[in-house]
Structures are given as structure tokens and as C-alpha cells.
Design goal:
- It is built from 1 helix and 6 strands, in the order ββαββββ.
- With 102 residues, the protein is mostly beta strands.
- Strands 1, 2, 3, 4, 5 and 6 form a 6-stranded mixed sheet that branches.
- It is globular, with a radius of gyration of 13 Å.
Length: 102
Amino acid sequence: MSHVQGYTLPVNAACYRTLGPWNTDEIPTGLKGQHQLKAGSWAVIKILSGKIDFVWDDESAKPAITLEARMELTVPPLVLHHLVPDGPVAMTLSFYREGQTV
């Protein structure tokens, strides 16, 4: 996987849940609307095939990022964002917590 430049997981973060894989029709509606991760939680979006746009909805005015097959993006806590599928896509979503032991 190729990691998109931007945020990185904290050194002490550990995965506590992975969801998917989902195809375009299975992506939860909540991910397509504006949302954010709670404090202390991070997420990693992995694109298995196809494309999806990751849109920042916070005040930073960062441009949207198009994620393609074999790319992943780390999403920090408390930052508003949403996903926009761009045709057929398959993806997973993993959640991490700081200081989590597995």
C-alpha cells in the first residue's frame, strides 16, 4: 500500500477494529456525510480497487484527496470529513486508539 502524505498514526496507536471490505453500494451512509472521529481515535482508509474522494470539511480548506487502488490515508481525530465514491470502489476502514493494547 502507498500511504498518502499527511497525518501519521501516533507511535503508541494500535488497531482495535477493521470494517469491510465494502464495495460502492455497501459503504455506510454515515461515511458519505460529514462526520468526525472521536478524541483519541484515528482511522486508516485502504482502497483495494477503484477510486474514492476524501473531502476535508474542517476549516483548514485543504483540497479533496482522490484515493485510488493500493492507497491508504490516515484520518486524525476531531476533523470533519466525508467520502465521495468515484465509480466502483472496494475499501476497508481500520480504527486505532492511542495507548491501546491488543
